[in-house]
Design brief:
alpha/beta; 4-stranded parallel β-sheet; two-stranded antiparallel sheet; 5 helices; 8 strands; globular
């Protein structure tokens, strides 16, 4: 039996629009990372980019559970002395709401060149509008998106 690797020009890349309004941040990010990686395709190969493009809209209206709004902090370092900066999720949501989704999804991708290139296929927008109409994206409802496990298709919550 021979392992068949997909060629770059054989990979069918699709564009999906995901509306995350009212959805839990971590669950939505996990499903988006799975689509970006291409794990739901039969041609999935761990060391290749076989995934699709994902456009996330309404990032400002994503939901978090518990007291994460005030307790979850995001850390960054400017590179200068005393340049450590941290801010809460609430403050980051007011300043740059698309960064919340971007950081959650990037944390679920591989920490390598492959993961960084997969991150470029994620497009996040705070409101309901996006400039990717020319790509004719399909609307993807993550609430009803199937998860494949043990070769059986399970339908997620919301059906």
């Amino acid at each position: 039996m021979k392992t068949v690797l997909p060629k770059v020009n054989e990979i069918d890349r699709r564009w999906y629009v995901v509306d995350v309004e009212g959805q839990v941040l971590g669950r939505a990010a996990a499903r988006i990372a799975r689509i970006l990686r291409g794990k739901d395709k039969p041609i999935f190969t761990p060391h290749m980019d076989t995934g699709d493009f994902v456009i996330v809209v309404n990032a400002k209206k994503v939901k978090v559970t518990g007291a994460k709004e005030d307790q979850k902090t995001y850390f960054r370092y400017t590179g200068y002395p005393r340049g450590a900066r941290s801010e809460t999720l609430r403050r980051l949501r007011n300043r740059r709401p698309e960064e919340i989704i971007r950081r959650a999804v990037r944390g679920m991708l591989p920490k390598s060149r492959l993961g960084r290139s997969l991150g470029t296929k994620l497009k996040v927008y705070a409101g309901p509008d996006h400039p990717h109409a020319a790509q004719v994206p399909e609307i993807l409802d993550l609430q009803k998106w199937p998860v494949h496990s043990n070769n059986k298709t399970q339908v997620l919550i919301g059906e």
